[in-house]
Structure formats: C-alpha cells, structure tokens
Amino acid sequence: MIGANNSSIARTLIGLNTLVSGAALVIACIAFGTYDRTTSRAGAVRTLSVQAQIVGANSVSALVFNDPDTAGVTLSALNAAPSIVSAGIYSNDGHLFAGYQRDDTIETPRPRLMSSDATEVHRFENERITLVRRIVFQGRPVGSVAIQSDLQELNARQAQYVGMIATVLVASLIAAMLMSWLSQRAILTPIVQLAGVARAVSNGKDYSVRVPATTRGDEIGTLTHAFNDMLTQIQERDTSLHEAQHALETRVRDRTAELESVNKELEAFSYSVSHDLRAPLRHIAGFAGLLQDQAKATLDEQGHAHLRKIAQAAKRMGQLIDDLLAFSRIGRGHLTSRTVHLQDLVREAWLEVTSEQGVAGRVIEWQVAELPDVTGDPAMLRLVMVNLLSNAVKYTGPRPKARVEVGATRDVHGETVVFVRDNGVGFDMQYAHKLFGVFQRLHSSDDFEGTGIGLANVRRIVHRHGGRVWAEAETDRGATFYFSLPAKEHG
Amino acid sequence: MLHPSAVRKGVTLRHLTLTAAFVLLGAVLHAQQAPPRDYDVKAAYLFNFGRFTTWPAAGAGGDGAVFGVCVLGRDPFGAALDAMVTGEMIDGKRVTVRRIARAQDTDSCRIVFVSASEDTQLTQILQSLVGSRILTVSDLPQFVERGGMIQFVSDGKKIRFTVNVPAATQAGLTLSSELLRVAAAVRANPKPGGA
Predict the structure, then answer these.
(1) CA of residue B80 relative to chain centroid, distance
(2) Between chains, do B181 and A70 touch, taking CB under 8 Å as contact?
(3) pLDDT in tens, B59-99
(4) Which has more pLDDT, A158 or B16?
(5) A365 to each of A349, A475, A477, how far by Cα in Å?
(6) What is the pLDDT of residues A216-244, one digit of tens each?
(7) Pairing state of beta strands A402-410 and A416-422?
(8) Which among A185, A452, A489, B121 could disulfide-bond with A375, CB atoms 3.0 to 4.6 Å apart, if both were Cys?
(9) What is the CATH number of the domain that holds A257?
(10) Do A92 and B41 count as a contact with CB atoms less than 8 A apart?
(11) Which of B2, B18, B182 sits opposite A70 (nearest CB)?
(12) Which of B178, B179, B180, B186 to mutate: most A Cβ within 10 Å?
C-alpha cells in the first residue's frame, strides 16, 4: 500500500537486511564448511590409520616368516574400501614386501614419508592421502604399511556440502528478503505518510494537513505526534504572523497618510510664509530706495549708511527666501530618471559657475577626469554639480592659484562615486556633520557669501537618488566632496 | 637403505625379518652380499615361533627364569642362533640357547629343535616330551606326522613350515592364528601318511 515498496528507504531496509543476513550466513557457512573439511579430513585420516593398523597387525607373521602371499591376501581385503587406491607393506629396510592396487595404472605408495621415530605419518597431495604406519610386533618394528586413499569420498561430501550451503543460502536470502519486505511495511507506512505530508506542506504551504494519528509508542509514533504538533504551532504562528502583518500594514498606511498630510501642511505653511514674507520685504526695500532718492539732501552721511544697510539686509532676506523656496521645491518636485552624460553635465556646470561675477581675473586650474554615464534627473544632478563647483570656486578665493578637480570611480556593485576636490580653505573635520544642514555655515558670510543652503540641496538631491554625500577636509588644506549614485536609479 | 635407528639397535632389529638374517650372516661371515644359508633363516624362524606361541601361565617347561631354546643333537645352526637370541626377551624371560644331548635334559627349554641326527630316536624323544609343555620343531621329514608340532619344509625357493595344531594343543600350547596363516600346511588331525 501507499507505494512503500518504491521508496528508497524500503529498498535500503530490504537491502540492508538481506546484506546482513547474507553476510552472517556466508560467514557461518564458511565456518561450518571449514570445520567440516577439517573434521572430515581428520576422519579420513583416522579411518586410514585404523585400516593401516589392521593390515599391519595381520601382516606381522607374514613379515616375520617371509610370506608375501599371505601379506598380499591381507592387503587385498582393502578391496572392500573403494576409496583406497593402493597399499603396500614394506620390510624394515624399505623394500616392497607386498602390494595392492585398485587398478594397474596406480603405483604402490612409497614409504618415504616415514621418519625414523614417528609411528605414523600422513600427507595430502595430488588429491590423495598417503598414510604410512610402522608395524610393531612385541615392541620391535618389523616393517611398515603404506595406504593411499583418494579424496573422492571427501570431495563428494564437500560438493554435497557446498550444494547444500548454496541451497540454504539462497533459501535464507529469499526468506530474509521476504521477512524484511513484510516487516518494513510496519515501519515504513507511517514514515511514508509523514514524508507525503511533509512534501504537501513544503510544496503547498498548507499547514492545515495532518499525518494520520497513530497509537504507536515508539520513535515513529513520537515523530508523527511531534510533526503534527509542529504543524499546529506553525499554523498558529502563520495565522498570527498574517494578522500582525496586516495590522502593521494598516498602521504604516495610517501613519504615512498622517505624516504626508502633516508634511504637506508644513510645506504649504513654509511656502506660504516664505511667499508672504516677500511682500513686506519688497515694501521695505522699495521704501528704503524711495527714501534714499527723496531725502538725499536732508540725510547726512550716517543716515545714508543706515539706508544702505537696510537695503542690503532686505536683499539678503529676499535671497534667503528664494533659496528656501528652491529647497522646498527640490523636496517636492518630481524626479525623472534617465541616462545622464556626467562629462557634459560637469562641463556645462563649470561654465555656468565660472561665468558668474567674482571669478574674472582669478587663476583657476581646472581638471576633469573621464566621467561615466549615470542614471538620474539631469536638472537635479546639474544643480548638485553647480553647487559643489561653486563652493569649490568660492572657498579657493584666497588662493593665488586655485585648483579644482573632478573625478569619479565606479565600484564592483555599479555604485558611482563622484568627487570634487579643491585646494581651498577647507574646514575642521569635527564640524563635518554640520556641512549639509540647512543654513549651516562653517565660515562667516563676511568671509564667503552664501546662505548656507547649497549643500543641503546637494544632500537632498543625492538622497532622493538613493545615494550618499560626505566630505573630507583639513583646515587650509582644501576639501573633497563626495557623492555617490547607486547602480540603478530607483526614485 | 637402513634407518639410523636400525643401525643403532644393531642386529637385534634386523634379525626380525628375512633380510635381517642375511645382514647378521654377513657380520659372521665378513661377506655381506652372500645369500643367507637355510639354517640362518631357520634360526630366525625358530626364535620367532616362540613369539607366536602362548605357554600356559603355570607349569611351563623350564626353570622359569630363562626362555630356553634348545638344540637336541648335533647343532646345525652354529653361531647364528646364539647371535639371534642375544639380549632378546620372550614372555618376559631372557632367551638363551642350550645344546642338549638327551631328551631328559629339557629342564629350562621352551622350544626344542630336534636335529636331523636324532632321526632314529625321534619316537622316543617325542614320547619323553609328552606333557612337558615344550614346542617341538624339526626339519626331519614326516616330523608332524610322527607327532612333532612344527616342521620346516622347503618348496625349493623358500623355507616354510607345517604345523600340527592338535599336538601343540595337547601340550597345552596355543599357536597364534597369525602363525597358522603363514604356515604352508596345518594339520588339524594327525594322520599317518599325509596332511
């Protein structure tokens, strides 16, 4: 049932059982065979020895009274033993006294096996046993008898034994296979069920299935129960996980919506504030200008200076508001994604930066390495480059010979890192974390103009591209700004 | 080819077979290749008859201390018989050779060889030995027919012997069946004129 016989465990079990019982049987058969061979050979030697003793005892008088005929008659009695092929009685000096051959082709054995003090020796050779025994009469050796027997009987017995062993072996193996086939079903049925359920769970992710319950108290029963318990637990976890996930998703959605609305409100607020601030500012600037024109004669020099200060402050505030609005736009605007030729983009940005006021007359060494193509929003990336280059130009102002360098590297993951290096005033690395904040400045606006929003824009743009920004610098030793762009733009 | 042990044990080993007699004779005659004389063979047989015969436990002939092999009449064996029995034991007794002239001198004799010289007195000799438990041997013709126990015969090539079982039985002696097997003839009932 349930295809247990096709499972590899069933085959393994049957094979293992057959192998084990087969090995045990073979070893037992070899042991018994060896034992049988040894004992049957010993028995054959014993039989031969007895025959030699009888022949010897009956040949004493024949030897003593020189009667080979009588000895021959005694030997011919060996005819009754079909396995004896030849025999001989020898005088003490080794001469053949009387002989017997089963047929004429066989020679009588030579008693050369006999050593001086042995009573009896035997030797197996050429499929024969030769046994030589000294004939002793009243304590005196009177000659010797040699009997040669073939091993036909032994071999026949051995062949019979081998045949029997082979039969027993085959029968036992078949029985072992049958037994293991019958017994494996008891073990395998629950395992196969278990495996089926496990497969169903693994493939279908269906944790509601269960292995049919068993009353077995053994490891398989334990396994089945444990598996079912495990499935129950997994099912419970799965359910609670789904619920938790669902709850989480709902919560994230709510929070996001909440945040978005708050953010929108905030943006709208800052936009409207910035926008609304412009009108009074224009008034201040306009009326300050009017006052300067109309009251030129009545105002003294100090009054003029105050008016100029008012105009400058208004102008600077307008700049700040503009930048703030731009920053807000960068955060909100849609980001396109297309291939950008960084080389062209950097050249254009450089031209834009160097065409501004305050650069004329300066000596600036400009160095651009070969730059790769990247993916991103061209206008935004242009803004990044303009900001970084303009910073570089700005902070190299005090250098009689300024140097600005742009390069890029691309690592194995496809991330492109672009750097802008200058030999300007640099900064103290301990303030590096402040660099990219809004309106954060490391230098006073008296030394270098600017609102402090450029690098904040850079960071915002790069972050929106999924990249990072950082900088390395040393006071008075120049600075290097880095930004990275991931392999594929995703936002 | 002699076994080392045979050499060590000397003549006593060899004399047990026919060829041993030949070697022994060689020692006597200083000519080992010479064929054995008939009486050398007969000396060996005479000695061996003693080994295949059983005497009754009590009342055996002789003084009981020695196993006498006696030659009655003119001795045809010479030194061969003495050499044969030297150091030998039969029935637990030392074998000695005695040469006697009268049938009355058989005190320590177990075996009496009646020499051819006693042919004329044979009947009287056998008569006097009745009831004496002595094995009588001779090469006189008609010896067994005349009441003797073992008689040497010759078939021209070999020395053989005939046995008179009833005579031995009457004397209380048991002749081994082995001996009877190799005998040329065995008389069960002594009858004048044939075996």
Answers:
(1) 13
(2) yes
(3) 554 456 788 999 999 999 988 899 888 888 888 888 999 99
(4) A158
(5) 16, 20, 16
(6) 778 888 888 888 898 899 889 989 999 99
(7) antiparallel
(8) A489
(9) 1.10.287
(10) no
(11) B182
(12) B178
